[in-house]
Amino acid sequence: MVEVRVENVRKTYGKVEALKGATLDFKSGAMTAILGPSGCGKTTLLRSIAGFIQIDEGRILFGGDEVTQLPPQRRGTAMVFQNYALWPHMTIFGNVAYGLRLQKIPEAEIRRRVLKVLELVEIGNLSDVETRKPAALSGGQQQRVALARALVVEPKVLLMDEPLSNLDAKVRQRLRAELRRLQKQVGITAIYVTHDQEEALALADTVVLMNQGRIVQTGSPQDIYLKPSTAFAAEFLGVSNQLEGEAVDGTLAIAGQTVAYAGPVRGKAVVIVRASDVQIEEPAAAFRPGTMALTGILEESLFLGAHYRQYIRVGQIVVMADSADPRPTGAVRLVVPSEKVQVYQAA
Amino acid sequence: MRRTLRMAGVVLAGAVIFLPLSSLVIWSFAEKWYWPHLFPQQLGFFYWAKVLQGDMLRALKDGFLIAVVVTVLTLVITIPLAYVLARLPIPLKPLILMVFLLPQAFPQLPVFVNSTTLLYRVNLGGKLGGVILIHMVGALVFAVWTMTAVFKSVPETLEEAAINLGASRFKAFHSISLPLATPGIIASTLLVFLYSLDEFTGTLLVGSPFVLTLPVYMYRTSVGYELQVASISALMLMVPGIVLLVLLERYMKSEYLSMFGRI
After folding, report:
1. How many structural domains comprise chain A?
2. Number of continuous H segments (helices) and E segments (strands) in chain A
3. Does B155 touch chain A if contact means CB atoms closer than 8 Å?
4. CA of B70, closest CA in chain A: separation in Å?
5. Rounded to a whole number, what is the distance in Å from the CA of B260 to chain A's nearest CA?
6. Which of A45, B31, B33, B76 is surrounded by the most beta carbons within 10 Å?
7. B127 to chain A, minimum CA–CA distance in Å?
8. In angstroms, rounded to a whole number, what is the distance separating the alpha carbons of residues A165 and A199?
9. Whole-number Å distance between alpha carbons of A189 and A157
10. What are phi and psi of B242, to 5 degrees?
11. B165 neighbourhood in chain A, CB within 8 Å
12. Nearest to B161 among A73, A81, A89 (CB)
């Protein structure tokens, strides 16, 4: 159980800067999710920590010891891969025992530890793990074996590279909960890379949001979701409306309509409003203080299962609003509580 | 109606494949067969006995010896080379693979004639060593191309997972990639072995007059109108081919073929 620290890590592939100076602490014994769209550098960062990628600049420390120059074999990390990366020619037992056999541990001890960890990841029937090959297992079971293979060597850091993204939705949900329980039970420092914001929020103690090779925001899942610090963060987390606006002293112009605004942004602005925060009211409803109101025309209402999504035309733009019930088309008034409106300086 | 058609098809296909071969079998037992008789007037084991006492056994022995040496040397060179080509980011990779293809790109005869004069200059003409070298020129093409494809078909993350758990690069190769590539390596080994056993032009030009393999032996006997002897050697030459091809079919996975030539 160690703290992992990366300092000003840079990596360039040819002309592409994959990491533009990332500095970050991964708390010991906690689960940290690195979240971002594809190509944001999250996998590069994870593979740099594992030692598969030689970084151009910066330092990587495990609990105060610098590991920047250490080869992957000597870093003491264990990785869980997106495609499981189980060895098809070995049995389930052989896969999990591999790391321990490399350490020349006595066979009886290996047996004890392998069976214990397979029990921990709830692989089910342990009687035939010495004869069955991984291909005989379902995807979810295979990923449990891969997790067991990583945990059995008692690594300093557990690295997970989108481990659930090859699984179907139901299995993914269940394994997500189990992964969190296991990580807490073992108390290992874990770093989890994903592009799925829901997964990151559900799993992690800390979420690190990355974009274009930079760390955009770090915080608890609640902080990240409720107080996104940039337009990108707000847009990436949840279905949001991203509106262009123009901020003058005390007012904000959006699509030809003016609303009250007391924040610090001036000039061109990006206004982010979650679809779930937009309330739809009668066009003649009275103005309530502490809200932002726009008028528009409801054009379409789609049933999405859990709720209805309304598309409302406001001048040149279309705003999405979610509600529990369908709404008739026609003129409406959109109301958003002021604290749910995020305004950012346009880039 | 459909059954009759199918039967007719099977018979036709069988005839196309086996009739030319059947004449080999008949010829090998014919002690007397003169025109215009449809079948030999006298059958017997005379020529089989003659062949099994004579030069043919030497040709068989030398041919196998050459094929084994060529196969082993090719494996020793190709496995590491193909692994490196498949795994490491080497510049000019397509060019390297192309170089191995070059001797096949030109007409075989001029290439071999040229090689022969060269080999005689370094005193390898007419010797086993020279024939082994000329076989390897062709064998390496098969081997490098197929084995690069074989190693490519083993996902790199499988090795990374081993390295991540503390395995050295060699250990990862030896315990993960090599066992997973074994069926492909066996297939490619069989290809090389068969190629060497069957190779004719190079063997004749480089090896003559001292090195004798089955194809060369067969050529000489058939030129000398000893059709019985030629038939027997042709039949002998087919046996390892058929046995190995059956094995090949068992080991060759379609994934390797789909990776073939992909860099």
Report:
1. 2
2. 8, 20
3. yes
4. 29
5. 22
6. A45
7. 43
8. 10
9. 5
10. -65, -45
11. 78, 98-99, 102, 149-150, 153
12. A81
Q: Please identify, in words, the CATH class of the domain defined by B45-259.
A: mainly alpha
Determine the structural domain holding residue A109 and report its residue range: 4-231
Please check whether residues A222 and A153 belong to one and the same domain.
Answer: yes
Residues of B in contact with A86 (CB under 8 A): 161
Spatial CA neighbour of A20 closest among A29, A11, A28: A11
Full-prediction pTM beyond 0.95?
no
List chain B domain ranges: 45-259
Q: Average pLDDT for residues A289-305, to the nearest whole number?
A: 90
* Interface residue B161 vs chain A (CB under 8 A): yes
**Confidence at residue B103, expressed as pLDDT on a 0 to 100 scale:** 77
Residue A153 to chain B, least CA–CA distance (Å): 8
* Whether A262 and A195 share a structural domain: no
Contacts by residues B120-125 (CB-CB < 8 Å, ≥ 24 positions apart): B124/B206, B125/B206
Q: Which residues contact A332 (CB under 8 A, 6 or more apart)?
A: A280, A281, A282, A283, A295, A296, A297, A298, A312
Provide the pLDDT for residue B253: 57
Q: Give the model confidence (pLDDT) of A145-175 as tens digits.
A: 999 999 999 999 999 999 999 899 889 999 9
| Complex ipTM more than 0.95, yes or no | no
Pairwise CB contact (< 8 Å): B160 & A52? yes
Residue A309's Cα: distance from chain center in Å? 24
Suggest the residue from A49, A81, A143, A153 to mutate for an interface test with chain B (most B CBs closer than 10 A).
Answer: A81
Residues A57 and A19 in one domain: yes
Residues A68 and A123 in one domain: yes
Strand partners, A31: A190
Same domain for A223 and A316, yes or no, is no
Q: What is the CATH number of the domain that holds A281?
A: 2.40.50.100
A98 closest CB neighbour out of B157, B162, B168: B162
pLDDT tens digits, one per residue of B135-177? 998 899 889 988 998 999 899 999 999 999 999 999 999 999 9
Residues A24 and A148 both lie in one domain: yes
In angstroms, what CA-CA distances link A78 with A46, A113, A177, A188, A274?
Answer: 11, 16, 20, 11, 38
Neighbour tally for B70: CB within 10 Å: 26
Q: Give the phi and the psi of residue A61 in degrees, each rounded to 5.
A: -125, 135
Of the residues A202, A231, A260, which one is the last residue of a structural domain? A231
- Chain-chain contact of B176 with A77 (C-beta, under 8 angstroms): no
- Look at A92-101, A315-324, A337-346, B49-58 and tell me which has the smallest mean pLDDT: B49-58
Residue bearing tokens 């203080």: A289
- Residues in chain A whose Cβ is within 8 Å of chain B: 50, 52, 72-74, 77-79, 81, 83, 85-89, 98-99, 102-103, 146, 149-150, 153
Q: Name chain A contacts of B179, Cβ cutoff 8 Å.
A: 89
Between chain A and chain B, the number of residue pairs with CB atoms below 8 A apart is 55
B34 torsion bin: left (phi>0), alpha (psi -120 to 50), beta (else):
beta
A108 and A253 share one domain:
no
Contact B224/A at CB under 8 A: no
End residue of a domain, out of A231, A261, A285? A231
